[in-house]
User: What shape does this take?
Amino acid sequence: MLEEIPSIHALSWASFSEKEFISSITKYNNSLTPGPDKLLWRHLKCIIKNNGFLSSIINIANTCFELGHWPSHFKTSITIIITKPNKELYDTPKVFRPIILLNTFGKLIKKVIGNCLQFHAISNNFIYLYQLSRLKQRLTSNTGITLTHFICIGWVKNTMISTLAFNIAQFFPFLNHCLLPCIFCKAGFNSKVKHFFSNYLVRRKT
Assistant: This one.
């Protein structure tokens, strides 16, 4: 069965659909730790079975995009510090890992928005063809398949093959907030997407 096409259009605006929310929430594990709202995923899954409650959630998501505003309630998180296992000493910051817990309700809306953005970015060929991981139908395991393919092509052409791998550490924490709205414009998204994320990124607290 083909998934329903997400509804954030690049050049026009359409409302979110019930299927988008139902499809997104079913993929969450009920045992995940809740955020400040103490709302478990199993609770939210029961709530959206009621059409009236589901319609209210969709109205909130649509209104957020219409107004270009992400409520402060969703910007508040809890940070939990846990230790990395099998370390000889725990006397440096590197041996600890911070875990950010967001409000469950906001995470659901964010998941739906992310699916829509990804669909249209890929549809408009804005994402590089060989970018793998964190994208639908582009698993990390495909990296090995792609690399093997290039090596085999090199063998056929009797050429030497070499690879260069590097890791961009702390990419997302240092993402330029002023640049991101410009990226959305270049990707073909309308001004509502730009205004929403300009507000989404600011005045967050934990």
Residues 18-74+105-200 form one domain. The radius of gyration is 20 Å. The chain has one domain: 18-74+105-200.
